[in-house]
Amino acid sequence: MTQIDFYTQVEDKLQTACKLTAKARSLGLRVTLFCPDRDTASRLDRMLWSAPATSFMPHCRLDDPLAPVTPVLIDTTGDNPLHDEVLINLHSEWPACFSRFQRLAEIVSAEDADRSEARARYKFYRDRGYEIRTHDLSTQRAG
Fold first, then answer.
1. Cα 57 to Cα 47: distance, rounded to the nearest angstrom
2. Residue 120 lies in a domain
3. 41 with 17: CB under 8 angstroms?
C-alpha cells in the first residue's frame, strides 16, 4: 500500500518539492513531480537546475526521449508513470495514478484555499484506508 506523507505549513511549495526530491534521490529513489500545468512545470524545471546548489539534479519532462533513464521526471498529465517509487503531488486534487507508487508526498501551504483542498485529499486517502503521516514544516522554520 502507498505510504502517504503530508508536508504542511510550507512557505514555498516548489522549493519544498525540490528539497523532497533531493532527499529521495539521496536515498537512490526515482521521483515523479506531478505539476498542475506547464507553467508550474517550467518553473520547477528551472529550479531543479540549481537545487541543490552543490550538485546536479538529473531531470526532464515525462515526454522527453530520455525520460525512461532519468531519475527525476516532471509530469503534467499523470497518464503513464514510468516508475513506481516516489510521487510528489503539486496538484489541488489527488492524482489518479497515486496508488501505483510506493510513496506519495503531498505539499500544503499555509494558504486557506490550499489547506482546504489538502483536507479533501487527506479525507479521500483516509477513507480508502491509507495510513497518513503529517509533517508540520512551520516548526522547522522556527528553530
1. 10
2. no
3. no
Give residue 111's identity as a one-letter amino acid code.
Answer: E
pLDDT > 70 in the chain, percent: 94
The pTM of this model reads 0.93
How many domains is the chain partitioned into structurally? 1
**Grid cell digits, residue 28:** 537512490
Helix, strand, or coil here: 16?
A: helix
DSSP letter at 91? S
Q: Which domain holds residue 16?
A: 3-110
**What number is the average pLDDT over the span 46-64?**
84
**Is pLDDT at 141 greater than 70 in this prediction?**
no
CATH number for the domain spanning 83: value is 3.40.50.10110
User: Nearest CA to 41 among 5, 75, 82, 79?
Assistant: 75
The Cα 45–Cα 48 span in angstroms is 5
The string of pLDDT tens digits covering residues 86-109 is 999 999 999 999 999 999 999 999
Cα–Cα nearest to 104, from 32, 35, 15, 9: 32
